[in-house]
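User: I'm curious whether this sequence folds into something compact or stays loose and floppy. Could you predict its structure so I can see for myself?
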Amino acid sequence: MSKVDILQSQSLYLETPSEVEFPNNSVLAELCGAGDINLQKLEYKLSIQISRRGNILSFSGDRKARENTAIILNKIYNHLEEGRSLDLIDLDSLVEATLKRNSTKWKIPVNKEKFRESGLDNLSVKTKKKIVEPRNINQKDFILNLLNYDLAFGIGPAGTGKTYISIALAVSMFLKGQVDRIVLTRPAVEAGERLGFLPGDIKEKIDPYMQPLYDALEDFLPNRQISKMIEDKKIEILPLAFMRGRTLSDSFLILDEGQNATSNQMKMFLTRLGKNSKTVVTGDLTQIDLPKGVPSGLTEAVSILKEIKEIGFTQFTARDVVRHKLVEKIITAYDKT
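Assistant: Here's the prediction. I'll summarize afterward.
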């Protein structure tokens, strides 16, 4: 436990810290980043000056800035100490979450930091057939982002629960009357070459590519209710190309396999968001199936939108895989090639 853990257990309003001491120098070096680039970014975002002396980080600024800095440095250190990597999205997410929590203008009632810091599994999503609970800190973060933001991204390898959690929350919100419709979509990249050779009408041609979405729904709702909701257009499962020209209000929109959306498709989807709606984009940037030379719309969207405070980002890693234990090892092995 770092000294800032002890400071946080006391009242920061009685004595606001101006330095933090960390026990592990190698973790601290990763926190600072190459050439202290992470510290420089924090200085800019927090309007504060940070200096390092051995395993102590000192900072100067007004009381609120020092308070935020102590909290954020502790969170980054704990994030790294758990063996997880730190990238731009992680850093921005940790900073923005803390700043929003401490802002009197922040209107969301859920205390995201309280849940992140606790080891409790009480952040559950209730559906008709089961209750879904987060199984790791990034799943908690993702659920909180879905609750707190109208647009959220879940990025990371297969098996981390990105789509499953998104659909669970969509079903939960529908059952509570918080949304009137669930819209699930995927880019049918493979279908672009083979659709004409498949038998049946357009629905029968597309359904094989949408099957993972049906599978998730069946975990949360009885089959008869799913069929009725699809018939009444309370649930729509369709290829991404079919989203063009629509504005969807009072809806929960999920774009799965977002890494296979082109730049134009991604922009088109993100701008479908209507009043009282939520939009979620999930994807794995290591499994892009677009033709060679065609950039991924998800990669571009993360780069373009990362500074917008009203958007939530969750970065999953192989450590967050909740399928068979071999899946994590397979993903890690491929990442090394």
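Summary: The chain is about 45% helix and 15% strand. The CA atoms of residues 38 and 94 lie 12 Å apart.
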